[in-house]
């Protein structure tokens, strides 16, 4: 992974300087006394197979095309298909299990015993589903899970309601969302500890098409 140095120049403007891994001295020498911030970059491949730098300053995220020395974008048509499976930008509370399976922790997404999506989680889910729409994706499977505290029927009802709440956000971007509520039937961790129960309270999102 390469590093990128952001040099703040004037009111709101910035310049990017590429650096070798772990060595930012060359970029620092080009700041001419201005403040600079070092951030780590990653690569995202868009639907056309073109590469982009993606990086986060801690306050905002940025995307910029990767260019050849002659100014042409770095593109490979052979990578233009199924790019949701490529390296994805981050979406806050939405975490990736693999290229097509994602989840949000229920404790960070909903109040206790509720299926009302919290504002921060709604913002992250909005960015995530917008990204899927822009990638040409059309269908997701959304599954709610709980821990084993409470009654089985209550847990099933809550898990389904939470899946439906996430599906409503997906629907706002034209995605078809199938929902399931599995209650406590498929834990990913032990229900014998506080941390384990927290891991089991989740909503999973699978990109189907």
From TrEMBL:
Per UniProt, residues of the OmpA-like domain are: 97-209
Localization, UniProt = Cell outer membrane
What span is annotated as the signal peptide, if there is one? 1-17
Name listed for the protein in its UniProt record = Putative lipoprotein YiaD
What's the domain of life for this entry? Answer: Bacteria
Gene designation: yiaD_2
A Pfam family of the record is OmpA
- InterPro entries tied to this protein: Bact_OuterMem_StrucFunc, OMP_bac, OmpA-like, OmpA-like_sf
Q: Which Gene3D superfamilies match?
A: OmpA-like domain (3.30.1330.60)
PANTHER family assigned to the protein according to its UniProt record, in alphabetical order: LIPOPROTEIN YIAD-RELATED, STATOR ELEMENT OF FLAGELLAR MOTOR COMPLEX
What Gene Ontology cellular component terms go with this record? cell outer membrane
Which UniProt keyword terms apply here? Cell outer membrane, Lipoprotein, Membrane, Signal
């Amino acid at each position: 992974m390469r590093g990128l140095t952001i040099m703040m120049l004037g009111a709101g403007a910035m310049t990017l300087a590429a650096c070798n891994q772990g060595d930012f001295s060359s970029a620092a020498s080009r700041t001419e006394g201005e403040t600079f911030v070092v951030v780590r970059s990653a690569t995202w491949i868009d639907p056309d197979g073109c590469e982009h730098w993606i990086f986060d300053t801690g306050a905002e995220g940025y995307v910029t095309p990767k260019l050849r020395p002659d100014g042409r974008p770095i593109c490979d048509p052979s990578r233009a298909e199924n790019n949701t499976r490529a390296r994805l930008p981050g979406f806050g509370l939405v975490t990736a299990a693999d290229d097509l399976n994602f989840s949000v922790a229920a404790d960070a997404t909903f109040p206790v015993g509720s299926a009302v999506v919290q504002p921060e989680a709604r913002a992250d889910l909005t960015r995530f589903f917008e990204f899927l729409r822009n990638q040409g994706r059309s269908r997701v499977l959304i599954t709610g899970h709980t821990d084993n505290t409470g009654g089985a029927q209550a847990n099933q009802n809550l898990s389904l309601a939470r899946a439906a709440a996430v599906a409503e956000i997906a629907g706002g971007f034209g995605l078809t969302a199938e929902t399931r509520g599995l209650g406590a039937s498929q834990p990913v961790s032990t229900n014998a500890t506080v941390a384990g129960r927290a891991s089991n309270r989740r909503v999973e999102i699978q990109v189907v098409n």
